[in-house]
Amino acid sequence: MVTPQQPKRRVAFILIDGLGDVSLPRLGYKTPLQAANVPNLDAIASGGVNGLMDPVEVGLGCGSDTAHLSLLGYDPRVYYRGRGAFESMGAGLAMSSGDIAFKVSVCVCVCTLTTFERFNLILSNFATLDEKTGIVTSRRADRHFEEEGPILCAALDGMRLPSFPEYEIRVRYATEHRCGVVVKGPKLSGNISATDPLKDNRLLLQAEALDSTDEARHTAAVVNELSREISRILVSHPLNAKRAAEGKNIANVVLLRGCGIRIEVPSFQDKHGLWACMVAPTKIIAGLGLSLDIDILEAPGATGDYRTLLTSKATVIANALSAPLAPSPSVFVPGEDERKPGRPDGYDFGFLHIKAIDDAGHDKASILKVKALEAVDRTIGQLAKLLLQAESTGKFQYFICVTGDHSTPVEYGDHSFEPVPFSMCRLRDFVGAVGGESFIMETSLDPFPIPTVEAGEDLVEAEKVGKERSSKQLKAFSGDSVCELSEIAAARGCLGRFPGGQMMGIIKAFLELNA
Hints:
The chain is α/β, with parallel strands linked by helices. 32% of the residues lie in helices and 17% in strands. The chain is globular, with a radius of gyration of 23 Å.
Protein backbone atom coordinates (compact mmCIF):
# COMPACT_ATOMS: atom_id res chain seq x y z
CA MET A 1 0.00 0.00 0.00
CA VAL A 2 1.29 3.45 -0.94
CA THR A 3 1.03 5.96 1.89
CA PRO A 4 -0.48 9.19 0.59
CA GLN A 5 1.91 12.12 0.81
CA GLN A 6 1.09 14.57 3.60
CA PRO A 7 0.46 18.15 2.49
CA LYS A 8 3.26 20.59 3.23
CA ARG A 9 2.41 22.93 6.10
CA ARG A 10 3.25 26.53 5.32
CA VAL A 11 2.70 29.84 7.13
CA ALA A 12 1.76 33.22 5.65
CA PHE A 13 2.94 35.67 8.31
CA ILE A 14 1.66 39.25 7.95
CA LEU A 15 3.50 41.84 10.05
CA ILE A 16 1.62 45.15 10.16
CA ASP A 17 4.21 47.67 11.29
CA GLY A 18 2.85 50.04 13.95
CA LEU A 19 -0.44 48.11 14.19
CA GLY A 20 -1.40 48.98 17.76
CA ASP A 21 -2.88 52.27 18.93
CA VAL A 22 -4.94 53.86 21.69
CA SER A 23 -8.61 54.88 21.92
CA LEU A 24 -9.34 58.17 20.15
CA PRO A 25 -12.25 60.50 21.02
CA ARG A 26 -12.61 61.47 17.36
CA LEU A 27 -13.26 57.78 16.55
CA GLY A 28 -15.83 57.31 19.27
CA TYR A 29 -13.17 56.17 21.74
CA LYS A 30 -12.11 53.35 19.48
CA THR A 31 -8.65 52.59 18.21
CA PRO A 32 -8.09 52.88 14.43
CA LEU A 33 -8.10 49.07 14.25
CA GLN A 34 -11.45 48.90 16.05
CA ALA A 35 -12.87 51.63 13.82
CA ALA A 36 -11.72 50.07 10.54
CA ASN A 37 -13.93 47.74 8.50
CA VAL A 38 -11.64 44.69 8.34
CA PRO A 39 -13.67 41.51 7.74
CA ASN A 40 -10.64 39.45 6.72
CA LEU A 41 -8.63 40.38 9.79
CA ASP A 42 -11.70 39.61 11.89
CA ALA A 43 -12.01 36.22 10.18
CA ILE A 44 -8.44 35.31 11.16
CA ALA A 45 -9.28 36.13 14.77
CA SER A 46 -12.63 34.36 14.59
CA GLY A 47 -11.14 31.24 13.05
CA GLY A 48 -8.13 30.78 15.28
CA VAL A 49 -6.29 31.60 18.49
CA ASN A 50 -5.59 35.06 19.84
CA GLY A 51 -3.57 36.93 22.40
CA LEU A 52 -1.89 40.20 23.33
CA MET A 53 1.83 40.39 22.65
CA ASP A 54 4.50 42.65 24.10
CA PRO A 55 7.05 42.65 21.26
CA VAL A 56 10.03 42.57 23.64
CA GLU A 57 8.74 42.97 27.19
CA VAL A 58 5.95 44.67 29.13
CA GLY A 59 6.27 48.45 29.23
CA LEU A 60 9.04 48.75 26.65
CA GLY A 61 8.52 51.01 23.65
CA CYS A 62 10.87 49.43 21.11
CA GLY A 63 12.16 50.10 17.61
CA SER A 64 11.18 47.95 14.66
CA ASP A 65 14.62 46.33 14.50
CA THR A 66 14.72 45.11 18.11
CA ALA A 67 11.05 44.11 17.91
CA HIS A 68 11.58 42.04 14.77
CA LEU A 69 14.60 40.31 16.28
CA SER A 70 12.53 39.41 19.32
CA LEU A 71 9.55 38.16 17.32
CA LEU A 72 11.74 35.96 15.15
CA GLY A 73 13.23 34.32 18.24
CA TYR A 74 16.49 36.25 18.69
CA ASP A 75 16.82 38.03 22.03
CA PRO A 76 17.83 41.63 21.17
CA ARG A 77 19.67 41.92 24.48
CA VAL A 78 22.02 39.21 23.21
CA TYR A 79 22.17 39.75 19.46
CA TYR A 80 21.46 43.42 18.74
CA ARG A 81 24.50 45.34 17.46
CA GLY A 82 22.97 48.54 16.08
CA ARG A 83 20.62 49.15 13.19
CA GLY A 84 23.17 50.53 10.74
CA ALA A 85 24.12 47.09 9.46
CA PHE A 86 20.47 46.20 8.82
CA GLU A 87 19.83 49.42 6.87
CA SER A 88 22.99 49.10 4.80
CA MET A 89 22.55 45.44 3.91
CA GLY A 90 18.92 46.04 3.02
CA ALA A 91 20.03 48.88 0.74
CA GLY A 92 22.28 46.45 -1.14
CA LEU A 93 25.66 46.89 0.52
CA ALA A 94 27.44 43.62 1.25
CA MET A 95 28.95 43.45 4.73
CA SER A 96 31.67 41.23 6.14
CA SER A 97 32.57 40.50 9.72
CA GLY A 98 34.31 43.56 11.22
CA ASP A 99 32.72 46.16 8.91
CA ILE A 100 30.69 48.93 10.53
CA ALA A 101 27.61 50.61 9.08
CA PHE A 102 25.25 53.48 9.83
CA LYS A 103 21.73 54.58 9.31
CA VAL A 104 22.02 57.95 7.63
CA SER A 105 19.87 61.07 7.54
CA VAL A 106 20.61 63.66 4.90
CA CYS A 107 20.75 67.18 6.30
CA VAL A 108 20.63 70.64 4.83
CA CYS A 109 22.00 73.77 6.36
CA VAL A 110 21.21 77.45 6.72
CA CYS A 111 23.39 79.74 4.63
CA THR A 112 22.99 83.43 5.62
CA LEU A 113 19.35 83.89 6.67
CA THR A 114 17.65 81.32 4.42
CA THR A 115 16.10 78.28 6.10
CA PHE A 116 16.96 74.90 4.59
CA GLU A 117 15.87 71.42 5.53
CA ARG A 118 17.24 67.89 5.77
CA PHE A 119 16.11 64.30 5.93
CA ASN A 120 15.79 62.58 9.27
CA LEU A 121 15.56 58.83 9.67
CA ILE A 122 13.48 58.44 12.79
CA LEU A 123 10.42 60.37 11.76
CA SER A 124 11.12 60.29 8.00
CA ASN A 125 11.51 64.07 7.91
CA PHE A 126 13.78 66.71 6.45
CA ALA A 127 15.44 68.91 9.05
CA THR A 128 17.35 72.19 9.20
CA LEU A 129 20.92 72.86 10.29
CA ASP A 130 22.27 76.35 10.87
CA GLU A 131 25.75 76.24 9.33
CA LYS A 132 27.08 79.13 11.38
CA THR A 133 26.08 77.75 14.76
CA GLY A 134 26.07 74.03 13.96
CA ILE A 135 22.59 73.72 15.48
CA VAL A 136 19.94 71.45 14.01
CA THR A 137 16.97 73.80 14.17
CA SER A 138 14.19 71.69 12.69
CA ARG A 139 13.66 68.00 12.11
CA ARG A 140 10.27 68.12 10.34
CA ALA A 141 9.31 68.99 6.77
CA ASP A 142 8.93 66.43 3.97
CA ARG A 143 9.63 62.72 3.79
CA HIS A 144 10.31 62.43 0.01
CA PHE A 145 13.85 62.33 -1.43
CA GLU A 146 13.40 59.62 -4.05
CA GLU A 147 14.92 61.54 -6.99
CA GLU A 148 17.79 63.38 -5.36
CA GLY A 149 18.79 60.69 -2.85
CA PRO A 150 20.23 58.18 -5.36
CA ILE A 151 22.18 60.96 -7.12
CA LEU A 152 23.84 62.20 -3.95
CA CYS A 153 24.52 58.67 -2.71
CA ALA A 154 26.23 57.85 -6.01
CA ALA A 155 28.49 60.87 -5.53
CA LEU A 156 29.49 59.66 -2.06
CA ASP A 157 29.91 55.98 -2.89
CA GLY A 158 33.59 54.99 -3.02
CA MET A 159 34.87 58.21 -1.42
CA ARG A 160 38.20 58.13 0.40
CA LEU A 161 39.26 59.71 3.70
CA PRO A 162 42.51 61.75 3.47
CA SER A 163 43.74 60.78 6.93
CA PHE A 164 42.55 57.18 6.68
CA PRO A 165 43.12 56.01 3.09
CA GLU A 166 43.02 52.36 4.12
CA TYR A 167 39.24 52.47 4.59
CA GLU A 168 36.66 51.87 1.87
CA ILE A 169 33.39 53.82 2.08
CA ARG A 170 30.23 52.47 0.42
CA VAL A 171 26.99 54.46 0.26
CA ARG A 172 23.68 53.21 -1.12
CA TYR A 173 20.27 54.88 -1.27
CA ALA A 174 17.58 52.96 0.59
CA THR A 175 14.08 54.44 0.52
CA GLU A 176 12.41 57.78 1.19
CA HIS A 177 15.06 59.76 3.12
CA ARG A 178 17.14 56.73 4.04
CA CYS A 179 20.50 55.50 2.85
CA GLY A 180 23.12 53.16 4.23
CA VAL A 181 26.83 53.82 4.79
CA VAL A 182 29.37 51.03 5.29
CA VAL A 183 32.98 51.55 6.40
CA LYS A 184 35.23 48.65 5.48
CA GLY A 185 38.71 48.24 6.94
CA PRO A 186 40.78 47.13 9.95
CA LYS A 187 40.40 47.81 13.66
CA LEU A 188 36.84 49.15 13.65
CA SER A 189 34.40 49.15 16.56
CA GLY A 190 30.64 49.51 16.56
CA ASN A 191 30.75 50.97 20.06
CA ILE A 192 30.67 54.68 19.21
CA SER A 193 28.06 57.40 19.55
CA ALA A 194 26.06 59.04 16.75
CA THR A 195 26.34 62.45 15.12
CA ASP A 196 22.53 62.90 15.08
CA PRO A 197 21.34 65.07 18.02
CA LEU A 198 17.84 63.47 17.81
CA LYS A 199 16.13 66.70 18.96
CA ASP A 200 15.53 70.07 17.38
CA ASN A 201 17.67 73.06 18.36
CA ARG A 202 20.65 70.99 19.39
CA LEU A 203 24.21 70.93 18.09
CA LEU A 204 25.29 68.50 15.42
CA LEU A 205 27.26 65.95 17.41
CA GLN A 206 30.74 64.51 17.14
CA ALA A 207 31.11 60.74 17.33
CA GLU A 208 32.71 59.59 20.57
CA ALA A 209 34.02 56.28 21.85
CA LEU A 210 31.61 54.50 24.19
CA ASP A 211 34.31 52.36 25.76
CA SER A 212 38.01 52.74 26.54
CA THR A 213 39.35 50.55 23.73
CA ASP A 214 41.78 51.86 21.11
CA GLU A 215 39.43 50.54 18.42
CA ALA A 216 36.50 52.62 19.63
CA ARG A 217 38.59 55.83 19.88
CA HIS A 218 40.09 55.19 16.46
CA THR A 219 36.67 54.50 14.91
CA ALA A 220 35.26 57.73 16.34
CA ALA A 221 38.08 59.65 14.64
CA VAL A 222 37.38 57.87 11.34
CA VAL A 223 33.67 58.63 11.56
CA ASN A 224 34.17 62.32 12.38
CA GLU A 225 36.41 62.71 9.32
CA LEU A 226 33.83 60.79 7.29
CA SER A 227 31.14 63.26 8.37
CA ARG A 228 33.30 66.24 7.35
CA GLU A 229 34.29 64.74 4.00
CA ILE A 230 30.69 63.88 3.14
CA SER A 231 29.75 67.51 3.75
CA ARG A 232 32.65 68.75 1.61
CA ILE A 233 31.50 66.61 -1.32
CA LEU A 234 27.85 67.53 -0.97
CA VAL A 235 28.48 71.28 -0.74
CA SER A 236 30.07 71.30 -4.20
CA HIS A 237 27.64 68.89 -5.86
CA PRO A 238 25.89 70.32 -8.96
CA LEU A 239 22.53 69.08 -7.74
CA ASN A 240 22.77 71.34 -4.73
CA ALA A 241 23.80 74.28 -6.91
CA LYS A 242 20.77 73.64 -9.11
CA ARG A 243 18.45 73.37 -6.12
CA ALA A 244 19.84 76.57 -4.61
CA ALA A 245 19.32 78.41 -7.92
CA GLU A 246 15.72 77.22 -7.93
CA GLY A 247 15.21 78.45 -4.39
CA LYS A 248 15.04 74.92 -3.04
CA ASN A 249 16.67 73.44 0.03
CA ILE A 250 20.16 72.02 -0.43
CA ALA A 251 21.44 68.83 1.19
CA ASN A 252 24.99 69.34 2.38
CA VAL A 253 25.56 67.16 5.43
CA VAL A 254 24.46 63.77 6.75
CA LEU A 255 23.56 62.55 10.21
CA LEU A 256 25.19 59.24 11.09
CA ARG A 257 23.46 57.08 13.68
CA GLY A 258 22.84 53.49 14.63
CA CYS A 259 26.45 52.40 14.14
CA GLY A 260 26.46 48.63 14.03
CA ILE A 261 28.24 45.52 12.85
CA ARG A 262 26.81 42.52 11.08
CA ILE A 263 25.44 40.20 13.74
CA GLU A 264 26.60 36.60 13.93
CA VAL A 265 23.57 34.43 14.71
CA PRO A 266 22.19 30.98 13.87
CA SER A 267 20.19 31.09 10.67
CA PHE A 268 16.40 31.17 10.86
CA GLN A 269 16.27 27.71 9.27
CA ASP A 270 18.75 26.26 11.78
CA LYS A 271 16.91 27.83 14.71
CA HIS A 272 13.33 27.00 13.73
CA GLY A 273 13.55 24.27 11.06
CA LEU A 274 11.62 26.44 8.59
CA TRP A 275 12.79 27.78 5.23
CA ALA A 276 11.81 31.43 5.33
CA CYS A 277 11.41 34.23 2.81
CA MET A 278 10.49 37.88 3.27
CA VAL A 279 8.93 40.69 1.25
CA ALA A 280 10.09 43.90 2.92
CA PRO A 281 10.83 47.01 0.83
CA THR A 282 11.70 48.80 4.08
CA LYS A 283 15.47 48.36 3.98
CA ILE A 284 16.10 47.98 7.70
CA ILE A 285 13.70 45.02 7.83
CA ALA A 286 15.16 43.47 4.69
CA GLY A 287 18.66 43.82 6.15
CA LEU A 288 17.55 42.20 9.38
CA GLY A 289 16.15 39.29 7.38
CA LEU A 290 19.40 38.97 5.46
CA SER A 291 21.29 38.83 8.76
CA LEU A 292 19.22 35.76 9.65
CA ASP A 293 19.79 34.16 6.21
CA ILE A 294 16.17 34.73 5.23
CA ASP A 295 15.70 35.08 1.46
CA ILE A 296 14.52 38.59 0.49
CA LEU A 297 12.04 38.55 -2.39
CA GLU A 298 11.37 41.54 -4.60
CA ALA A 299 7.81 42.59 -5.40
CA PRO A 300 7.33 45.00 -8.33
CA GLY A 301 5.79 48.26 -7.17
CA ALA A 302 6.36 47.57 -3.47
CA THR A 303 7.89 50.73 -2.00
CA GLY A 304 7.58 50.50 1.78
CA ASP A 305 5.45 53.65 2.03
CA TYR A 306 1.98 54.96 1.11
CA ARG A 307 2.63 54.43 -2.62
CA THR A 308 3.22 50.69 -2.25
CA LEU A 309 1.33 48.05 -4.25
CA LEU A 310 0.11 45.63 -1.62
CA THR A 311 -1.31 43.23 -4.20
CA SER A 312 2.17 42.71 -5.63
CA LYS A 313 3.47 41.80 -2.18
CA ALA A 314 0.66 39.31 -1.61
CA THR A 315 1.22 37.69 -5.00
CA VAL A 316 4.95 37.22 -4.44
CA ILE A 317 4.42 35.68 -0.99
CA ALA A 318 1.69 33.38 -2.36
CA ASN A 319 3.99 32.21 -5.17
CA ALA A 320 6.83 31.58 -2.71
CA LEU A 321 4.54 29.52 -0.48
CA SER A 322 3.04 27.54 -3.37
CA ALA A 323 6.23 26.64 -5.25
CA PRO A 324 6.81 24.38 -7.11
CA LEU A 325 3.20 24.76 -8.33
CA ALA A 326 4.03 28.41 -8.99
CA PRO A 327 7.48 29.66 -10.02
CA SER A 328 9.54 30.62 -6.97
CA PRO A 329 10.32 34.37 -6.98
CA SER A 330 13.88 35.64 -7.45
CA VAL A 331 15.99 36.58 -4.44
CA PHE A 332 17.85 39.82 -3.71
CA VAL A 333 21.57 39.52 -2.87
CA PRO A 334 23.47 42.49 -1.33
CA GLY A 335 26.39 43.68 -3.42
CA GLU A 336 25.22 41.91 -6.58
CA ASP A 337 23.29 43.30 -9.52
CA GLU A 338 21.93 39.91 -10.54
CA ARG A 339 19.19 38.15 -8.62
CA LYS A 340 19.46 34.50 -7.70
CA PRO A 341 16.63 31.98 -8.10
CA GLY A 342 14.41 31.28 -5.12
CA ARG A 343 14.09 27.82 -3.57
CA PRO A 344 12.61 25.51 -6.24
CA ASP A 345 10.47 23.72 -3.62
CA GLY A 346 9.25 26.98 -2.11
CA TYR A 347 9.26 28.20 1.46
CA ASP A 348 7.69 27.13 4.76
CA PHE A 349 7.40 30.63 6.24
CA GLY A 350 6.50 33.67 4.15
CA PHE A 351 7.00 36.99 5.96
CA LEU A 352 5.00 39.89 4.50
CA HIS A 353 5.98 43.26 6.02
CA ILE A 354 3.62 46.25 5.62
CA LYS A 355 4.97 49.66 6.61
CA ALA A 356 2.27 52.21 5.68
CA ILE A 357 0.32 51.74 8.92
CA ASP A 358 3.35 52.81 10.94
CA ASP A 359 3.83 55.84 8.68
CA ALA A 360 0.24 56.93 9.35
CA GLY A 361 0.88 56.69 13.09
CA HIS A 362 4.04 58.78 12.81
CA ASP A 363 2.17 61.32 10.69
CA LYS A 364 -0.61 61.51 13.32
CA ALA A 365 -3.14 60.72 10.60
CA SER A 366 -5.99 58.80 12.26
CA ILE A 367 -8.27 58.45 9.23
CA LEU A 368 -5.38 57.51 6.99
CA LYS A 369 -4.44 54.79 9.47
CA VAL A 370 -8.02 53.47 9.38
CA LYS A 371 -8.08 53.49 5.57
CA ALA A 372 -4.65 51.91 5.33
CA LEU A 373 -5.76 49.10 7.66
CA GLU A 374 -8.76 48.53 5.40
CA ALA A 375 -6.37 48.32 2.43
CA VAL A 376 -4.30 45.73 4.30
CA ASP A 377 -7.49 43.78 4.98
CA ARG A 378 -8.33 43.80 1.28
CA THR A 379 -4.82 42.49 0.53
CA ILE A 380 -5.27 39.62 2.98
CA GLY A 381 -8.38 38.61 1.06
CA GLN A 382 -6.31 38.50 -2.13
CA LEU A 383 -3.59 36.47 -0.43
CA ALA A 384 -6.17 34.04 0.95
CA LYS A 385 -7.63 33.48 -2.53
CA LEU A 386 -4.21 32.67 -3.99
CA LEU A 387 -3.38 30.30 -1.15
CA LEU A 388 -6.78 28.61 -1.36
CA GLN A 389 -6.20 27.87 -5.04
CA ALA A 390 -2.92 26.15 -4.15
CA GLU A 391 -4.34 24.32 -1.12
CA SER A 392 -7.15 22.90 -3.26
CA THR A 393 -4.54 20.73 -5.02
CA GLY A 394 -4.03 18.78 -1.80
CA LYS A 395 -0.29 19.50 -1.78
CA PHE A 396 -0.32 22.22 0.88
CA GLN A 397 -1.91 23.09 4.20
CA TYR A 398 -1.75 26.81 4.92
CA PHE A 399 -1.87 28.88 8.08
CA ILE A 400 -2.33 32.64 8.35
CA CYS A 401 -0.80 34.66 11.15
CA VAL A 402 -1.10 38.41 11.69
CA THR A 403 0.37 40.75 14.30
CA GLY A 404 2.36 43.98 14.72
CA ASP A 405 5.88 44.80 15.80
CA HIS A 406 4.83 47.64 18.12
CA SER A 407 2.16 50.27 18.61
CA THR A 408 2.45 53.66 16.88
CA PRO A 409 -0.45 55.69 18.29
CA VAL A 410 -1.50 58.64 16.16
CA GLU A 411 -1.88 60.72 19.34
CA TYR A 412 1.85 60.36 20.04
CA GLY A 413 3.29 60.16 16.53
CA ASP A 414 5.90 57.68 17.74
CA HIS A 415 6.35 54.13 19.01
CA SER A 416 4.87 53.33 22.41
CA PHE A 417 4.76 50.48 24.88
CA GLU A 418 1.16 49.25 24.33
CA PRO A 419 0.93 45.54 23.41
CA VAL A 420 -0.28 44.43 19.98
CA PRO A 421 -2.88 41.82 19.01
CA PHE A 422 -1.73 38.44 17.71
CA SER A 423 -3.91 36.01 15.78
CA MET A 424 -3.32 32.75 13.90
CA CYS A 425 -5.62 30.28 12.19
CA ARG A 426 -5.76 27.57 9.55
CA LEU A 427 -6.63 28.80 6.08
CA ARG A 428 -9.67 26.54 5.95
CA ASP A 429 -10.99 28.00 9.20
CA PHE A 430 -10.42 31.50 7.84
CA VAL A 431 -12.41 30.56 4.74
CA GLY A 432 -15.26 29.29 6.90
CA ALA A 433 -15.26 32.38 9.11
CA VAL A 434 -15.23 34.83 6.21
CA GLY A 435 -18.12 33.23 4.33
CA GLY A 436 -16.96 30.14 2.45
CA GLU A 437 -14.93 29.25 -0.63
CA SER A 438 -17.33 30.84 -3.09
CA PHE A 439 -17.06 34.14 -1.23
CA ILE A 440 -13.24 34.01 -1.29
CA MET A 441 -13.06 33.08 -4.96
CA GLU A 442 -15.02 36.20 -5.88
CA THR A 443 -12.18 38.35 -4.53
CA SER A 444 -10.63 40.53 -7.23
CA LEU A 445 -6.87 40.25 -7.67
CA ASP A 446 -6.60 43.64 -9.38
CA PRO A 447 -3.97 45.89 -7.80
CA PHE A 448 -5.15 48.98 -5.95
CA PRO A 449 -3.53 51.96 -4.19
CA ILE A 450 -3.70 52.77 -0.51
CA PRO A 451 -6.43 55.46 -0.25
CA THR A 452 -5.35 59.03 0.33
CA VAL A 453 -6.84 61.51 2.77
CA GLU A 454 -7.34 65.11 1.72
CA ALA A 455 -6.68 68.04 4.03
CA GLY A 456 -9.61 68.54 6.38
CA GLU A 457 -11.06 65.12 5.63
CA ASP A 458 -10.16 63.77 9.06
CA LEU A 459 -12.97 65.51 10.90
CA VAL A 460 -15.60 64.67 8.28
CA GLU A 461 -14.62 61.03 7.95
CA ALA A 462 -14.25 60.51 11.69
CA GLU A 463 -18.02 60.54 12.05
CA LYS A 464 -18.41 57.72 9.50
CA VAL A 465 -15.70 55.21 10.34
CA GLY A 466 -16.47 52.15 12.41
CA LYS A 467 -20.22 52.08 11.78
CA GLU A 468 -20.16 49.27 9.24
CA ARG A 469 -18.03 47.00 11.39
CA SER A 470 -20.02 47.65 14.58
CA SER A 471 -23.29 46.76 12.85
CA LYS A 472 -22.11 43.22 12.07
CA GLN A 473 -23.06 40.25 14.22
CA LEU A 474 -19.55 39.00 14.89
CA LYS A 475 -19.10 35.57 16.42
CA ALA A 476 -16.24 33.14 16.91
CA PHE A 477 -16.01 30.46 14.24
CA SER A 478 -13.30 28.20 15.69
CA GLY A 479 -10.52 28.29 18.27
CA ASP A 480 -11.16 30.62 21.22
CA SER A 481 -14.02 33.04 21.87
CA VAL A 482 -12.48 36.05 20.09
CA CYS A 483 -14.33 37.15 16.96
CA GLU A 484 -12.52 40.30 15.85
CA LEU A 485 -8.96 41.55 15.60
CA SER A 486 -8.38 44.46 17.95
CA GLU A 487 -6.27 45.49 20.89
CA ILE A 488 -9.22 44.97 23.27
CA ALA A 489 -10.65 41.75 21.85
CA ALA A 490 -7.25 40.05 21.74
CA ALA A 491 -7.00 40.31 25.53
CA ARG A 492 -9.76 37.67 25.78
CA GLY A 493 -7.84 35.18 23.65
CA CYS A 494 -6.64 31.80 24.86
CA LEU A 495 -2.98 32.79 24.46
CA GLY A 496 -3.27 35.51 27.12
CA ARG A 497 -0.52 38.12 27.19
CA PHE A 498 2.94 36.96 26.20
CA PRO A 499 6.37 38.39 25.23
CA GLY A 500 7.39 38.50 21.59
CA GLY A 501 10.26 36.13 22.22
CA GLN A 502 7.68 33.34 22.59
CA MET A 503 5.94 34.04 19.28
CA MET A 504 7.82 31.57 17.09
CA GLY A 505 7.30 28.85 19.70
CA ILE A 506 3.55 29.53 19.62
CA ILE A 507 3.50 29.38 15.82
CA LYS A 508 5.40 26.10 15.70
CA ALA A 509 3.20 24.60 18.44
CA PHE A 510 0.09 25.59 16.46
CA LEU A 511 1.51 23.85 13.41
CA GLU A 512 2.18 20.68 15.39
CA LEU A 513 -1.29 20.65 16.93
CA ASN A 514 -2.79 20.85 13.45
CA ALA A 515 -0.53 18.27 11.81
